[in-house]
């Protein structure tokens, strides 16, 4: 008793903290059963201490060169196997044991709010299978791959062309007009509505989505240790993300309530009506109003942000490579009559344009890691053990820039997607929409949008940068790799 009294409360806290830190370090650095080799992980931070936070893709690529087909690391407390080989990505993502998702904070908060429901992207098991089946069916029923949706995309492409033309040859930031036009396509499918450029409510929604897609060291650590939201600095980052998440969620819940109030039997106006019809008919076990709100939120966020980012990269790359822009325009002029609408069926006559779009997706790899999968049950990988819950991160950026797979990978060279006969083709090493059981359900729509928007703009306009301004092709880090803020000049073509 006397000895204990000699230790001050402050010293006791220091000893407990030191002891706890030591035990945490021993736990974090213990040899896990048979994980693959990888970079050094330290307590709490894992491998994040070693990342180039201005360009995490650079560090992940360096480790890929060092360790080969795959390697093990920890992102904070989470065990991750990074896969750098396209054949292995295809094999793992075709395996039903690898179709789970990591439970990130956003998904966890959704489940707490809605009795286990969490939308489409992070859904698992029966909920994922039912909602994916419904989304693919609804996209088909609502016109994706048919004339109706082609006409809608063409309409929005003409709207975007008018917005470019109205800049009167003056420098402008194309982020808002491109994002609005692309978003109008998916909005028309999901809730049968469109927005004008600059609509304040929709602009707030887009700004919130853009913020959530920009990740940082702080957001990565919050993803692993949500309790950091109570720690200074991290609390500010969390508050900003939380505001955006709540703004987005409230927007889509309003849409859900509107549809629930105006739904009429046998009169489905859009995907949300189709969902309510299925829900009322008890077609699927996991359908519920809050889940519908989360699902359409996922579809909208992923549907417009990625395609809009790709288009902005495509336009910027045409400014950086005017000789390629001229080749695209020559092909369009030879195959698309003036005033005619570009249609997906035209791609057979536009192999070079298709190759430019594919090369943009490869070169920019603006979805650098896709969406991570998680292992459901312990499994073997070349004698190593992937424990249940391990994240599988497909290193798509590295795969698209691996010198063993692509000659001069950092050069923008559309010809790599053309055969000796000039025909367009995609190798198995190219996977911009991911692969396997959980590949992007909106791939068909995204391909239509990229071709029609890109082709329509270049058919009508010549793009360039302001005089004396060089193209900044260094991507901004995030869940998607956005182009740095820039201005374009769009001048109507004279033919």
From TrEMBL:
Q: Does the keyword Membrane apply?
A: yes
A molecular function (GO) held by this record is: steroid hydroxylase activity
**Got a GO cellular component term for this one?**
cytoplasm
Q: Where does the chain bind heme?
A: 440
InterPro entries recorded for this chain?
Cyt_P450, Cyt_P450_CS, Cyt_P450_E_grp-I, Cyt_P450_sf, Cytochrome_P450_fam2
Q: Which cofactor does it need?
A: heme
**UniProt GO BP:** organic acid metabolic process; xenobiotic metabolic process
Transmembrane segment boundaries: 6-25
**Which Pfam families does the UniProt record give?**
p450 (PF00067)
Q: Which UniProt keywords apply?
A: Heme, Iron, Membrane, Metal-binding, Monooxygenase, Oxidoreductase, Transmembrane, Transmembrane helix
Q: Which family does it belong to?
A: Belongs to the cytochrome P450 family.
| Protein name (record) | Cytochrome P450 2J6
Q: Please report the organism this UniProt entry assigns to the protein.
A: Hypsibius exemplaris (Freshwater tardigrade)
């Amino acid at each position: 008793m006397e000895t204990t009294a000699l230790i001050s409360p402050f010293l006791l806290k220091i000893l407990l903290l030191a002891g706890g830190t030591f035990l945490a370090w021993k736990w974090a650095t213990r040899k896990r059963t048979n994980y693959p080799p990888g970079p050094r992980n330290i307590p709490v931070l894992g491998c994040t201490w070693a990342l180039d936070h201005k360009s995490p893709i650079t560090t992940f690529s360096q480790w890929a060169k060092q360790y080969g087909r795959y390697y093990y690391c920890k992102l904070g407390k989470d065990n991750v196997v990074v896969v750098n080989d396209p054949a292995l990505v295809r094999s793992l993502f075709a395996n039903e044991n690898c179709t789970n998702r990591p439970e990130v904070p956003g998904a966890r908060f959704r489940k707490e709010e809605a009795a286990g429901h969490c939308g489409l992207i992070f859904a698992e098991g029966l909920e994922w299978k039912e909602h994916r089946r419904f989304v693919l069916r609804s996209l088909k029923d609502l016109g994706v791959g048919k004339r109706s949706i082609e006409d809608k995309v063409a309409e929005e492409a003409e709207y975007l062309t008018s917005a470019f033309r109205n800049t009167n040859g003056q420098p402008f930031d194309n982020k808002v007009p491109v994002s609005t036009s692309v978003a109008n396509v998916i909005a028309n499918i999901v809730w049968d509505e469109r927005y004008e450029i600059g609509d304040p409510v929709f602009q707030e929604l887009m700004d919130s989505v853009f913020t959530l897609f920009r990740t940082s060291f702080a957001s990565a650590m919050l993803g692993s240790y949500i309790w950091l939201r109570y720690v200074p600095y991290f609390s500010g980052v969390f508050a900003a993300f939380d505001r955006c998440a709540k703004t987005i969620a409230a927007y889509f819940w309003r849409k859900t309530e509107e549809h629930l109030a105006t739904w009429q039997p046998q009169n489905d106006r859009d995907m949300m009506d189709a969902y309510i019809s299925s829900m009322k008919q008890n077609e699927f076990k996991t359908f519920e109003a809050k889940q519908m709100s989360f699902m359409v939120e996922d579809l909208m966020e992923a549907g417009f942000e990625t395609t809009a980012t790709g288009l902005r990269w495509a336009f910027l790359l045409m400014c950086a490579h005017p000789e390629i822009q001229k080749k695209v325009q020559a092909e369009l002029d030879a195959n698309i009559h003036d005033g005619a609408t570009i249609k997906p069926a035209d791609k057979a006559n536009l192999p070079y344009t298709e190759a430019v779009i594919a090369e943009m997706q490869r070169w920019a790899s603006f979805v650098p890691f896709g969406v991570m999968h998680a292992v459901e049950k312990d499994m073997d990988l070349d004698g190593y053990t992937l424990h249940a819950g391990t994240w599988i991160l497909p290193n798509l950026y590295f795969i698209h820039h691996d010198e063993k797979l692509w000659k001069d990978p950092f050069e923008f060279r559309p010809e790599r997607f053309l055969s000796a006969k000039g025909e367009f083709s995609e190798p198995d090493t190219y996977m911009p929409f991911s692969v396997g059981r959980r590949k992007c359900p909106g791939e068909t729509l995204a391909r239509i949008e990229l071709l029609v928007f890109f082709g329509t703009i270049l058919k009508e306009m010549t793009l360039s940068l302001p005089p004396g301004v060089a193209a900044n092709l260094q991507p901004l880090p995030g869940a998607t790799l956005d182009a740095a803020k820039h201005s374009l000049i769009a001048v109507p073509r004279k033919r």
